[in-house]
Amino acid sequence: MDRSVSIDAALAVLLADEQATVVDLVLCARDGVVEAHARAGSVGFTRDGSVTFQKGRNPLAAQDAGAFSPLADEMQHVRPTNETNHYPYAYDNAAQLFDDPRAPDLAVIHTPAHNWEERGGHRGEHGSLDLIQSRAPLIVAGKGVRTLGRIEREARMINVAPTLATLAGVQPLNGTLLRAQDGEPLHDILDPAEQPDHVVGFLWDGANANVLHAMADAGELPNLARLMSMGTTFGRGCIASFPSVTLANHTTALTGVHPGRHGVLHNFYFDRATGREIITNSPDTWHFARDEISPNVETLFEAVARSGGGFTAAVDEPVDRGAGYATFDLVRAARGSGATMSSALPDPTQVPGATQTFVDLKREYGWATSADHLAVMQATQVWKGQNGNPTPRFMWINLILPDAANHAGGPYSDIGHAGLRDTDARMGEILDAMDWGGGNTAFLLVADHGMEESDPECKGDFDDALTAAGIPFRDEGYGFIYLDA
Ligand SMILES: [Zn+2]
Predict the structure, then answer these.
(1) Integer Cα distance of 422 and 366 in angstroms
(2) What's the gap between Cα 304 and its chain centre?
C-alpha cells in the first residue's frame, strides 16, 4: 500500500475516541514535512520551526520550559492533557528524529496518565516529548564555572557535551568543539579566566529536576546542595532530546548531537534496510550499544584525546567510545565467557548505606544499588590512580538508582525519594574521596530525562486497536510504529 495511505489509516485508529486516554499525539514525516497529530488538531512543520500547515488546534502550541515549576506547581498539574501540557523545543526535538532513515513511520506519544506496566512500562515513566518527562536537572559547578546560584533558565541536552568540552579545553575542529555538534556551550555560566585541571560529570539516570531541587532545599540531599552552592543550577532544568529515553540521551549528553543524528535512536528500533531489530538499553546489550554510535559524531572522550587533553574515564557508562578507562571494557573483555553486567554485581543486601527496605521490596532497586556501589568503588580507584593511570582529565560517572526507584513508585514516592537520598550519599562518597576536586576541578550533574507519574487506573493498548483494524505493523519500544514491516 502507498505509505501515505497507510499512515492515514493508522492515524485514524490511533486518534479515535477509544484511544483518547492513552494516545497523546502522533508524529510522522511526509514529503519533507514533520507532522504532529492529536484528536483536536494537527500541525506540520520543518526543522527550522516554520509551520507549514495547521488543522484545528495546534497540539504543540504550548512550549514553555518554565511551566509546571517549582515542585508545588508541578504537583498541582499532574498528568496534563494535550490541551494543558507543554512541549519545549517541540519542533526541533520532533524533527531531528526523522533525520535517521531508521526512524519509525509513526512515533506514538503516550498520554502522561497511560500506565502500561503489563507491557514493560512503570508507575513512573519517561520517553515522551512532554515537559515533565523531558525535564532533567542540570548543575554546573567548581573551577571555571560562575557561582550564579539557581537561575530561572533551562538548558538542553545538546548543550551538555559542548559545555563539558569547553571546560576540558577541547580544541575546535572546523569551527565547533565536537564533530557534528547540534548544541552550543553554555558560555554565560562559565568563567573563561579560570581553566580547571579536571572535569567530572555525574549522570543521575531518570531524576526529576523539581524533586531534586525541593529535596536539596529541604536538606535531604546534602552533597547535591553543596554542589549547587559551588556553581549554577538551571532552575528550569535541562530539556532532553526526543525520545526522552536512556541511551538516546546519554549519547546526546556525551556528543552534543540529537538522537536522529548520533545513531542511538531509541532503546529499541528497527532497520528496514537490513531487517535488524536494534536493542540498545538492556543489561544484556549495554556493552554493545556504543557500536551504534555514528562514526560521524565525536564523544567527549574522543574529543579530549584528540586535543591531547589526557586520560579519560567512563564509569558504568555504556556510551564510552574513546574512553581510556571504561567499566564496560571489563564486560567486553569477558564476552567469551558469557559475562554481562549482571554477573559482576555484589549482593545488594550487603551494600553499606543502601535503603534495605526497598532493596528487599524491589528487585530493580537492589540491582541498581549493586551497580552504583561498584561505580563508587571504581570512580574512587580511578581518581586515585590505583589502576596505574593518571588522575583523569575527564571522568564521567553514571548512577542508575534514581531511574529504578522513580520507575518503581513515580517521582513523588517514598521509594523514589529513597533512591535520590542513597544516590546523594554515593556521590558524596566519591566527592569526599576526591577531596571535592581539590579546588581545580569542574563538576556537572545532569540526568538523561525526567520522570512523570502515570495513573495505574489508566489502561489501554493502542497496538490492540491497530491489530483489530487489520493494519500490518511492528512496534518497537511500544511507540515506534513501522507500517507494513
Ligand atoms: Zn534513563
Answers:
(1) 12
(2) 22
Q: What is the pLDDT of residue 341?
A: 66
Convert 144-170 to b/e letters by CB count within 10 Å (16 or more is b).
bbeeeebeebbbbbbbbbbbbbbbbbb
What mean pLDDT is predicted for residues 183-203? 97
Decide: 190 and 144 in contact? Cβ < 8 Å: yes
Strands (E) in 174-311, as ranges, are 198-204, 231-234, 238-239, 268-271, 276-279
Q: Give the distance (Å) from ligand 1 centre to CA of residue 398.
A: 10
**What residues contact residue 242 under an 8 Å CB cut-off, 6+ apart?**
93, 94, 96, 97, 107, 129, 134, 259
Secondary structure element (H or E) that encloses residue 420, with its range = helix 414-433
- What lies within 8 Å, CB to CB, of 28 at 6+ separation is 7, 11, 34, 35, 37, 105, 106, 107
Q: State in Å: Cα 245 to ligand 1 middle.
A: 6
The span from the CA of 78 to the CA of 97, in Å, is: 27
Compute φ and ψ for 429, nearest 5 degrees: -60, -45
CA angle 80, 267, 176 (to 5 degrees): 90
Output the CA–CA distances (angstroms, integers) from residue 182 to 158, 160, 178, 252, 258, in the order listed.
6, 11, 9, 9, 7
Task: Report CA(388)–ligand 1 centroid distance (Å).
Answer: 31
Phi and psi at 200, nearest 5°, equal: -125, 125
Cα 207 to middle of ligand 1, angstroms: 8
Rounded to whole angstroms, how far apart are CA atoms 225 and 421? 12
| pLDDT single digits (tens) 299-352 | 999 999 999 889 999 999 999 999 999 999 988 887 666 666 677 788 999 998
At position 327, the amino acid (one-letter code) is T
Q: Give per-residue pLDDT as tens, 420-434.
A: 999 999 999 999 999
Helix or strand holding residue 30 (H, E): strand 23-30
Residue 76 to residues 13, 20, 68, 73, Cα–Cα distance (Å): 32, 22, 8, 5
Rounded to the nearest whole angstrom, what is the distance from the C-alpha of residue 52 to the centroid of ligand 1? 34
CA of 127 to the centre of ligand 1 (A): 9
Indicate yes or no: pTM above 0.85: yes
